[in-house]
Write a structure and sequence with these properties.
226 residues, mainly alpha, Arp2/3 complex 21 kDa subunit ARPC3, 73% helix
Length: 226
């Protein structure tokens, strides 16, 4: 059996191929490669930069939905226009877990949801009329109260149970203040009477919610720091 013959190329062709393989890159090619690398780095940076922003928006949306769910549990009081709800539990958690700005954003989204017509306020109510009504001050208080809690929590690197509880009490005071002021303005009541129907009936329940929110915050923080 004959062996296959090797194809022999002229030396001139081999020399040309070697020169092409080892020729130096031109300035244009180097510039294009450099620009491509820069574009890839920019795309990667943009992806990493956008990731926390998207996560923050999702977190704020989650707590706005939870606050809306808390409004479904509504117990009207015969002597007060302000019902008992579970909303403040999620207001506390939003501030403690998301921080001041994101916590306030979550509650602002919740309020805007109700203003545009979604039945997310206590008792399934909705509309701008609720915000300017006798209980509207409490809704605005959710926003500022969550902001207050978040800012106070961040003062300490590892907040203790006692400090978290103090932060939530401070946020609750903001909610009560705005709620009572609008209640007084709407009904013409004095401060004592507005406090009697707009604050006093809710202190015990809110204290229990603060304790629960503080415990949940501590547990979540321990999981996140592991």
């Amino acid at each position: 059996m004959e062996k296959p013959r090797r194809t022999r190329y002229p030396k001139s062709i081999i020399n040309v191929q070697l020169k092409r393989a080892h020729r130096p890159r031109t300035v244009t090619e180097e510039t294009q490669n450099r620009n491509t690398k820069v574009e890839l780095h920019y795309i990667r940076w943009k992806e990493y930069a956008m990731r926390p922003k998207v996560q923050n928006i999702l977190d704020a949306a989650l707590f706005s939905a939870l606050t809306a769910a808390g409004a479904l549990i509504s117990i009207p009081l015969p002597f007060s226009p302000v019902p008992i709800t579970m909303q403040t539990l999620f207001t506390y958690l939003a501030g403690a877990l998301l921080g001041g700005y994101l916590g306030a954003l979550s509650q602002l989204i919740y309020v805007l949801m109700g203003i545009v017509g979604l039945p997310v306020f206590a008792g399934g109510n909705a509309g701008f009329v609720v915000l300017i009504g006798p209980t509207g001050g409490y809704l605005l208080g959710f926003v500022l109260g969550s902001f207050t809690i978040g800012k106070l929590v961040k003062i300490k690197k590892n907040p203790s149970f006692q400090w978290l509880l103090i932060c939530m009490i401070s946020g609750t005071a903001v909610i009560y203040l705005l709620g009572v002021l609008q209640l007084m303005n709407w009904t013409g009541m004095g401060a004592a009477e507005a406090f009697a129907i707009g604050v006093f009936p809710f202190i015990l329940g809110d204290l229990l919610k603060m304790l629960v929110a503080t415990y949940i915050t501590i547990r979540i923080q321990k999981v996140l720091t592991k």
